[in-house]
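Methods — Computational structure assignment.
A single polypeptide chain was analysed. Its primary sequence is given first, followed by the predicted tertiary structure written as structure tokens.
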Amino acid sequence: MRAAVVNSAQATPVCADFPAPEPQPGRAPLSLVGAGLHHVVRGMATGRHYRGGKAFPLVPGVDAVARAEDGRLVYTGLARSPWGTMAESMVTPFEVDLPAGADPLAVAAGMNPASAGWMPLVAHRKEAGELGTVLVLGATGMSGGLAVRAALALGATQVVAAGRDREALDRLSGLGAVTVPLADPASDAGRAALTTAVAEARPGLVLDFVWGPVAEAAFAALGGIRPHDGETTSYVQIGSLAGTEAALPADLLRSRRIRITGSGMGSVSKAEMIVEFPEMITRFADGTFDAPYTTYPLSRVGEAWAHQGRTRAVVVPG
């Protein structure tokens, strides 16, 4: 079969012949419709991601929209290594039917980034009984923006969206979020803006898609608030686009009830994610979620790998 093939950790994928995936009991092969080229896809293929493979060659891709033998469009993923979803054919452990009205390529582009925020939001609501106020750091990226939309849709009392892209912040403000520009979180002005927003909102849940100096600014902001009796903050680390390390003040841990956890592949089970996929997909059909995309045929997967900008690259047959 034709597939995107990565031959080494440093190599750009090429379109080449690759052995068809091994059959699995009760799982018929699916045909590619579109596979999103997410940050995690690049990270895993190059070995930079903590769940990345070390054996080459491999086919990249963690999820896709595919067509079943009976013609159904399904969302799927989690193919067994060395096979990924950027191939003409795939064998996967689950399928979720797409509802009418869902753009299959938007689903391919957006389900992975949407799940990054959706899973901790659902978990927090289940544990606390409500979402309350949610602070999203890195809200102007695709994952962060979808997390803002998810929090609003799931009933958050208030959503504070902090990020660098002014145009994206304006769009989130139009949806009902309180926005905080973070042009330089390490600067006095950047820290002051975040401190003011945190003091006013008193978030019970923080979703951090960037880490690094942004997280340090958030820790300082949280540490400057005198907590109310019984007030708890849940801080969830999801992405690290601003840096892989952040200094955590000891005083913050001792001065308030705060829990710092992570959410990602390995900390959330596959079964938990699959249960949530149908409701997430309906959000693409009803317009709650939006994931702009740019398509590339398999024959141009190298160009897709280099894609940058506000849209998500989606690899399609061809």
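Note: The domain at 113-262 is CATH 3.40.50.720 (Rossmann fold).
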